[in-house]
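ok trying again, last paste got cut off:
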Amino acid sequence: MTDPTSPTTARPALPDTAEAPAPTGRRPYAAAFRALIALTALTGVVLDTIDSDDLGRLFSYFTIQSNLLLAIACAWSAHRAWTARPALSPRITGAALLYISITGLVFHFVLSNDASGFAMTSQRTPLESVANQLLHTVTPLTAALDWLLLTTPGGFLLRHAWQWLAYPLLYLPFALVRGALLAPGTDGRYPYPFLDVDLHGYAGIATNAVVFGLAFYALALTLVLLDRIRPHLQPRRNRISPTASGRLK
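nice, full thing came through this time. structure:
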């Protein structure tokens, strides 16, 4: 007869409860709100596409790219919230938040500000005006609301701040190489005035890149800090009820 205390027949140890991922419930309100953000961003892009006669130029704008990234992140996050899966990594959601925040802040404080020296003012069609508000105002504000109201604080780490800068830094050579490949005088050769080599030269562009890069890094650090100190506004779940979605403590 086998000895029940023998190591060869001992039951395998259960996984450490403290290290096991906590189960999560469906989050329909978060899913609906994030789906709405994704739809808003896509609507703005579609309206701009309908009214554009140069799609290559249109999709070279940081505004369009950041809104597409936000739409993907929000749609993905909405699916996970609806299907009771764990939330997306803060590294991903924080990156989307930073990029769309850059879009909104640069537009309102630089591109729409005549005192900045980099203003972009032009006559817009009704479709362009609607798209402009959706892509530069509505999506940044709703993304910020989602972060503040529907996510758990403390997920952003200091190392995320510089990691998030990879895309804005890569956007610089993308814009310069694209402009260099186009013929001088081409409309929209450089997507933004502060990246226009014809106006500022490469030395001026390097200076602008450093200034904007430091500003973007400061914004990333600010998001990390605010994420650490902001209150938790989500309702707490019952931790002792048998129907609670979190593990017992």
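cool. The radius of gyration is 23 Å. The longest helix spans residues 197-229.
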